[in-house]
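Changelog note: in this version the structure field was regenerated for every chain. One regenerated record is shown below for reference.
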Amino acid sequence: MPEHGALRHLVFLDPDPDLSAFAEQCIALGGGLYIYYTGLSRSRLYHRLKAAHHPERLLVAPLADDPKFKGMAAGALKTLRLQTKTHPTNTLQAKQAVHTGNSSLVADGSH
């Protein structure tokens, strides 16, 4: 599960690099679409994903709350609900972590 206090980002990568190895930091929604949890700023996450996966198309957008969705990857909604229930996101703590550089996610596979 993502670290407590992580910011949520909607991420789209094309081609889809299959980020299942990052199950601790993201929820796969299908077709290159992910909900990413990280203490990194939007810009830092964007540049790390860009450098690590060299996508043709990339979108990184912050989410203020959990999104509503239907018809995504099997188990995605259940995982999102479980994550939200067990580790509610504290946006203020996450924003402070971004400003102090206290982040553990490195999108190229190293932690």
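Spot check on this record: Residues 52 and 108 are 5 Å apart (CA to CA). The longest strand covers residues 7-14.
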